[in-house]
Amino acid sequence: MPSSSSSLRAPLLAVATPTVLVILWAALASAHLFPTSLFPHPWDVARGLALELKTGRLVNDVIASLFRVSTGFVLSVVLGVPAGLLLGHSALARNALLPIVNFFRSLSPLAWIPFAILWLGIGDPPAIFLIFMAAFFPIVLATTAAVANIPSVYFRVARDLGITGSRLLSAVTLPAIAPQVITTLRVTAGLSWLVVVAAEMIAGRDGLGFAVWDARNGLRIDLLVAAMFVIGVIGACLDRLLVQLTKIPSVRWGYER
Amino acid sequence: MAAAAQLLRLERVVVSYGEVDVLAGIDLEVRDGEFVAIVGPSGCGKTTLLNVCSGWLTPTSGRVDRPAALRMVFQQDGLFPWLTVDENVRLGLGQIAEPLERQRRTNALLGLIGLTSFAGSYPHQLSGGMRQRVELARALGGETPLLLMDEPFSSLDYLTRLKMRLELAWILRTQPRTVLLVTHDIEEAAQLADRVLVLSERPARIRDEVVLKVPRPRDPTDPEVVSAVRRILGVLGLKPQEGARAGFKQN
After folding, report:
1. Angle at the Cα of A30 (from A28 to A32), degrees rounded to 5?
2. Taken in order A158, A161, A164, A168, is the CA torsion positive or negative?
3. CA distance B130 to B136
4. Nearest to A250 among B70, B78, B82 (CB)
5. DSSP B44
6. B30 neighbors B54 (Cβ within 8 angstroms)
7. CA within 13 Å, CB half, B214
8. Torsion angles phi and psi, residue A122, rounded to 5
9. What is the pLDDT of residue A257?
């Protein structure tokens, strides 16, 4: 009884609270407490969304933004994880590079926007560059820490069992850091999605960030909110997608207890 | 037993870290088929001694003769948590390449430790005692004559520990090995070992050697086991009339 009712309650609540919020929003907008140019009606937003979908502009923007995020993010992972492995294994590399990594990690990627435009112009390259600057350094740091925290007993066991060389990396190091790295991937993917919107607002001619900025310039507050809605939904979906990684049986141990 | 070949030999082994002497000249011999236990107060250098035996640590001075291959059983989870029980045990098989033979041996080892139905489970899904049994199976899979055990049961509760001692004794009957066990558990040492070496506080020296001749598995209340425990307690200064006399009784 408690299991069946609570298993039903969770998805029900997930639908109920947003519905209540929208009803509240509609009621507030219908009361005309604020001018519609500052506080749009959800119905107008829905119509704007439908219109943007029909013209195909919204779909193009979504594709543009997702392309930039995935390119920048994959680049960060492909370069960041090996860099973290190197730093985790070598005290020399840590001493030489960790201060620099920490410096750049603490630097807001948005501070790079001027250079991104000066160096790379407008479009995909500056956005990808900014996402890389946002995601690469946290991935390096988290991987470094994960490697440094591998219990030494695993390496002793590996030596006992004759696991050496490149097999040590694939059979011990990588599986040992996988749970922590996956957690970092979730965080940095979210960060990348935040950054792409900011990047496109300033250095884009398309993409969801540009859609927000364009709507604001055209005083189309309905389209502005429609773009915001899509940004939020896709961001949440990206995280749901990456959560699937934590369900792989061989990494479950990292999330138990 | 006296005629059996020497498997492990330490001669005047000294380990010091800077000013601190941890091992102060240890002589030790383990012969083929023996079960030798080393007990001593915590922090006395028991684990250091075992690390010297395994080759993980090079002594500051002295001589170590040990077999080319040996296996260790660790105090804390040395199982790879990302592998199933089956995969962990299989990893211990070493050189055997033929897949069917690997599977057959893995199954045999899982049967030996009574965990056949947990083959597909991950270590975090098992109890502490079960994990320790898997560790044992993995170490046995190497077919090395010598096993080094570093407090293998110390993270388990008392009753599980008692059970594991009996199981280890039974397993060693079907899979005979030479064992060097390091433990702070005096009763465990007396219940399992043919010889118990008692170490002094740091820097560690061998203070006493207690020989037991009762066959394994032994009852922990067997008179010989009990008298061994009593003697070790005496050496360590833990008998009521000798230890902590001034103690807490005043208040």
Report:
1. 80
2. negative
3. 10
4. B82
5. S
6. no
7. 19
8. -120, 150
9. 64
Å between A81 CA and nearest CA of chain B = 19
Confidence band, pLDDT 50/70/90 cuts, at residue B251: very low
CATH number of A41-255: 1.10.3720.10
Q: How far apart are CA B183 and CA B116, in angstroms?
A: 29
In angstroms, the CA B76 to CA B132 distance is: 9
Give residue limits of the domains in chain B.
1-70+146-242, 81-143
pLDDT digits (tens, 9 = 90+) for A69-106: 999 999 999 999 999 999 999 999 999 999 999 999 99
Q: Which of B217, B112, B221, B111 is nearest to B169 (CA)?
A: B217
Encode burial over A216-242: b for 16+ CB neighbours within 10 A, e otherwise.
eeeebbbbbbbbbebbeebbeebeeeb
H/E segment holding residue B198: strand B195-199
**Rounded to 5°, angle at Cα A153 from A151 and A158:** 115
Q: What are phi and psi of B229, to 5 degrees?
A: -60, -45
Cis peptide bond upstream of A126, omega within 30: no
The verdict on a CB contact (< 8 Å) between B124 and A257 is: yes
Is the torsion defined by CA of B192, B197, B201, B203 positive or negative? negative
Average pLDDT of chain A to the nearest whole number: 92
> Strands B195-199, B35-39: parallel, antiparallel or unpaired by DSSP?
parallel
Torsion of CA B93, B94, B98, B102, to 10 degrees: 10
- One-letter amino acid for residue B233 of the chain: L
Cis peptide before B203 (omega within 30 of 0): yes
Residue B81 contacts A where some CB pair is shorter than 8 Å: yes
Other beta carbons less than 10 A from residue A197's beta carbon: 23
| Residue A253 in contact with partner chain B when CB distance is under 8 A | yes
DSSP annotation of A222 = H
pTM check: above 0.90: no
Listed ranges A133-142, B4-13, B53-62, B127-136; the one with the highest mean pLDDT: A133-142
Q: Which CATH class is domain B1-70+146-242?
A: alpha beta
Of the candidates A156, A178, A253, the beta carbon closest to that of B124 is on A253
Nearest C-alpha in B relative to A251: B82
Best to test chain A binding among B82, B88, B127 (most A CBs inside 10 Å): B82
Q: Which residue type, as a one-letter code, is found at position B52?
A: V
